[in-house]
Design goal:
The protein has 5 domains: 164 residues, Sandwich (Jelly Rolls); 249 residues, Alpha-Beta Barrel (TIM Barrel); 103 residues, Immunoglobulins (Immunoglobulin-like, Sandwich); 97 residues, Beta-galactosidase, Chain A, domain 5; 148 residues, no CATH class. The chain is 12% helix and 39% strand. The strands form 14 sheets. Strands 51, 52, 53, 54, 55, 56, 57, 58, 59, 60, 61, 62 and 63 form a 13-stranded antiparallel beta sheet that branches. A hairpin with a 5-residue loop joins strand 44 and strand 45. The protein is elongated and about 110 Å long.
């Protein structure tokens, strides 16, 4: 009986506690993966003028209603010169509205409570009726939580009806200007959840905290119907350990807004590398000590400061922001985002070693919750894309944003609009709601002591950093349209900026391609060149720059490492963390054997172990060490992989143990010997080198390769070597035998001195080219090579129609540009043939892209069912260009330029071009030949036997 009575008392206490908490009842689902069907009617476009069902929450276009509009359409429509956008006229100029009906229950137990209906986000104007009565003013503004007190409109214990009329375009011109004349897809509908809340009439409405690094907690408490003599109990629990930190009780006055100050001991601070969180429970007590109402918030203790002409400081440490701009976007559901996708996005952003995120409007609450949990700073922005809200509208929307988001420790700065969308009249209003008084910026502008210039050029850099005195933080830079920007040029730009103590970092544009799968056509649509700006694709495919950013922004940096015979296992390492000692991390090493195709098809691990990392503080450098295994120099590549304190991979690197010449020589000796010597034959206009069934024929008039046969089968390598980025004119040629090898030597005038072709007895065709060596008589048309040099080397024809894939040893798996080589690693890689055009969604996308430049070639096999070919390089650092990527259809409309690819199909190059992107140019090389220079040798071997 005692046990039964005890259980009853516990149950009674639990029920009583629940009764004092805010109760929530969802009328919609919680996201795109959990929806509720409501009745729906749409005014125009798809499935209009009839009642049907719609999933809530959702963007109604993605449910097959209304029509599609991209924000820039409105902008272009107002401009005189619209010719370049004629291709997009098929997009509807949509201004539809929708009507939602839904019936719901309200329990009798809610009588006597204050009931609100809460909308997390509606696009764009929302008029709400409960039981045929309008509950309040039409809400205008798409990205904000809003609510109405509907207590007196409800029927308790009975069915209630709700009607919501949603207009895609706002009746307020400033709302349209700020939110919908913008560079993004425009959607309509109730796209975030809808729910009821029930609170006691005497209640804690909401709180705003300033939880500082020293344990001081200043809390602004907003109360309703408070009485004299009531108190507030505050308790704190660690979210990590679930251990209670303490409990404190504060007296209250009868004012609706009060500030409570408490202090808590033994607090662990929040930062992006140590996101320590606490559960703060606030209980409003009656005069007799009973709990009247309680709320719980998750908070982090940290101190944010902006120090003019100095920097942005977190817990006394100057921040260096490594961020991205992220839209709330899903290719199938539009702006309706699941918690699962928020977590996926945040983890992908952390994988790139970023520590911050920004967007043009407040994101879903669950994304901010994830940022709190895993440690991502967030720059939260009142919407205003190049145009601002009116002061009347902004004064309504600002507190909606602030009251929802104020307590997230991840938020370190507020932004008032973007690129001219600033309403200066409300700049000072942010501080009215924020007890932390976080800094307010105007993105793109030099404002309030913080210069946030977008896409700065070299002139800006000189003025703003080298001669300026403002803190500099780019809220957008290195525009990532298609396969440009972001990773490309980041290393050089970041190195230059980082050297200045006033540099506070920046945010790359942008995180995700906004390609929407249209329900009217079934096609993925980016509105031409407007939306594919992401470093990940619309379905979160990782593009090449993803890995470049990951390496450049790695908090663990390895100094350039060249493994020589003197290497003893020591290498220099730098700690680029802001808050972590390197002894919190760990690193592993592997020695890998990477054989040529004929020897083995797979890498072999010879040895592995752990690296001893130095215990160095942020900003310091030290020496890491591992003991070399006995078989170390038998390996081909040293792999290193670093892990953070949570066990997540930070970055990995690979360094050659053998150079190309030594690698090739070692594996060459493993091939079976051939006793039959090579030979040659000539005709009036052809020279042919032959051995082991292979015949390579050259044109006597110019020395070029004409045809290769393996038996009766023609290998389509021909029409080369064509000079790339230099000039060469055939001069003379000679044939000879050198032992059992047939040799054809071609001499040139110009940049190339000579090319020596060798046919070995086993049928390997060697090409040994000497270029850019100094000779007094080596002049052709006044120049050796193009100046500046973007491409330099040789090309051949090798039609891609029979190629099924490529397997290679070199830096991979992604293609590179001269200013985007970081993020690729030495290894054996495999790519099946694809014709992916990055960011173009009119056909399937496969990553990594097949075509383009590939770095650090050791060997590569162009795979084919009929005519495979393997090429080996004895020369270090050769770039292998594989075919010419198809360019984006709309690149010219956005000023995207790409240096011309070399002639032919495949190329072997000393130099390749940089890609041009906003904020960084396409760097070129300037080569000068001095007297006595021996020039450059390119030594390649072609094998036509491998299948």
């Amino acid at each position: 009986m005692k046990r039964i009575i005890g259980l009853f008392i516990i149950l009674l206490c639990l029920c009583s506690a629940k009764a004092q908490q805010t109760e929530v009842r969802y009328l919609s689902g919680t996201g795109p993966d959990n929806t509720v069907k409501w009745d729906f009617w749409c005014s125009s476009g798809m499935n209009s003028q009839k009642w049907s069902k719609i999933e809530v929450p959702s963007c109604w276009e993605q449910q097959g209603f209304g029509g599609y509009t991209y924000g820039r359409y409105y902008i272009y429509k107002e401009r005189e010169n619209e010719k370049q956008y004629d291709a997009y006229r098929e997009h509807d100029f949509c201004d539809e509205y929708g009507i939602y009906h839904h019936r719901f229950d309200v329990p009798d137990s809610w009588k006597g409570k204050q009931i609100s209906i809460v909308f997390e986000g509606v696009m764009t104007d929302a008029e709400v009726k409960i039981n045929d009565v309008i509950v309040g003013p039409t809400h205008q503004g798409a990205f904000y939580r809003f609510s109405y007190d509907i207590t007196d409109k409800l029927k308790f214990g009975k069915k209630n009806s709700m009607e919501v009329t949603v207009r895609k375009q706002s009746a307020d011109k400033s709302v349209n200007a700020a939110e919908r004349r913008a560079d993004w897809w425009l959607f309509g509908g109730i796209y975030r959840p809808v729910y009821l809340t029930a609170k006691p009439r005497t209640q804690i409405d909401h709180i705003a905290v300033d939880a500082r690094a020293d344990g001081t907690l200043r809390t602004d408490v907003y109360l309703k119907n408070i009485s004299k003599g009531q108190q507030m109990e505050l308790s704190l629990i660690s979210c990590d350990s679930q251990l209670p930190i303490g409990r404190q009780v504060c007296g209250l006055s009868t004012e609706e807004r009060q500030t409570l100050t408490t202090h808590w001991n033994n607090i662990r601070t929040w930062d992006p590398e140590h996101p320590n969180l606490y559960q703060l429970t606030m209980r409003l007590l009656s005069t007799t000590g009973d709990v009247v109402h309680e709320i719980t918030e998750r908070i982090g203790f940290r101190t944010i400061e902006f120090r003019p002409e100095d920097g942005i400081y977190l817990n006394g440490t100057r921040l260096l922001v490594k961020g991205t701009n992220r839209h709330c976007f899903d290719s199938e559901t539009g702006r309706t985002i699941s918690r699962k996708l928020s977590l996926k996005d945040a983890l992908l952003i952390k994988q790139m070693n970023m520590n911050a995120v920004r967007s043009h409007y407040p994101p879903d609450s669950h994304f901010l919750e994830v940022c709190d949990s895993i440690g991502l700073l967030y720059l939260n922005e009142l919407c205003g894309w190049q145009n601002s809200y009116s002061t009347e509208i902004a004064e309504k929307l600002l507190p909606e944003m602030m009251f929802r988001d104020i307590n997230h420790p991840c938020i370190f700065i507020w932004a008032n609009g973007n690129e001219g969308g600033w309403n200066a009249a409300i700049d000072n209003r942010f501080a009215d709601y924020d007890p932390q008084k976080r800094h307010v910026i105007h993105p793109w502008a030099d404002f309030n002591g913080l210069d946030t210039r977008h896409y700065p050029n070299s002139t800006d850099n000189m003025y703003r950093l080298e001669r300026g005195h403002k803190v500099f933080m780019m809220t957008e830079f290195l525009h990532g349209l298609y396969d440009r920007g972001q990773g490309a040029g980041l290393k050089g730009l970041w190195s230059k900026f980082k050297a200045n103590p006033l540099f506070a970092g920046g945010f790359l544009w942008a995180y995700v391609d906004e390609a929407i799968r249209r329900t009217d056509t079934g096609q993925m649509d980016t509105y031409g060149p407007n939306a594919p700006d992401g470093i990940v694709g619309a379905n979160r495919e990782k593009e090449g720059s993803f890995y470049t950013v990951r390496e450049v922004w790695s908090p663990i940096q390895i100094n350039p490492l060249k493994i020589t015979s003197s290497f003893k296992g020591d290498f220099y390492i730098a700690n680029d963390y802001l808050f972590s000692n390197l002894n919190e991390c760990r690193m592993k090493w592997k020695v890998m054997r990477l054989p040529i195709p004929q020897v083995s098809d797979s890498p072999i691990c010879l040895a592995e172990g752990s690296v001893l990392l130095p215990a160095i503080q942020p900003g310091e450098k030290g020496t890491a060490h591992f003991d070399l295994p006995e078989k170390f120099f038998n390996g081909d590549v040293l792999e290193l992989e670093a892990y953070n304190a949570m066990g997540d991979t930070v970055c990995n690197w690979a360094f050659p143990i053998k150079n190309n010449r030594k690698y090739f020589a070692e594996y060459r000796h493993l091939q079976p010997a051939t006793t039959t010597a090579a030979r040659y034959q000539t005709t009036s206009n052809r020279v042919t080198l032959m051995a082991n069934g292979v015949a390579a024929t050259f044109n006597k008039a110019n020395g070029n390769l004409v045809e290769v046969k393996n038996g009766s089968k023609i290998i389509p390598l021909s029409d080369g070597p064509l000079p790339v980025g230099m000039k060469m004119l055939f001069s003379s040629a000679n044939l000879k035998m050198q032992g059992d090898t047939a040799i054809y030597t071609v001499k040139y005038k110009g940049a190339a001195d000579s090319i020596v072709w060798r046919m070995t007895p086993d049928g390997l065709l060697g090409m040994d080219a000497l270029v850019l060596n100094y000779r007094a008589d080596n002049k052709f048309d006044g120049a050796y090579f193009d100046r500046p040099v973007h491409n330099l080397g040789f090309s051949f024809s090798f039609p891609e129609k029979n190629v099924s894939g490529m397997r290679w040893l070199g830096k991979g798996p992604y293609r590179v540009w001269k200013n985007r080589i970081e993020g690729t690693n030495y290894g054996i890689w495999q790519k099946d043939y694809n014709n992916t055009v990055t960011g173009e969604y009119y056909h399937s996308l496969v990553y990594p892209e097949f075509k383009g430049y590939h770095a650090g070639l050791y060997w590569a096999t162009l795979q084919s069912q009929t005519t495979p070919m393997t090429v080996y390089s004895e020369t270090d650092g050769i770039f292998f260009r594989v075919f010419t990527p198809e360019e984006q259809r709309d690149r010219e409309s956005r000023g995207i330029s790409v240096k011309e690819y070399p002639a032919g199909d495949i190329s072997f190059l000393f130099e390749i071009p940089a890609v041009n992107s906003q904020g960084t140019g396409g760097e070129a090389s300037y080569i000068k030949i001095n007297k006595g220079d021996e020039g450059f040798r390119m030594k390649l071997w072609f094998d036509f036997h491998y299948l």
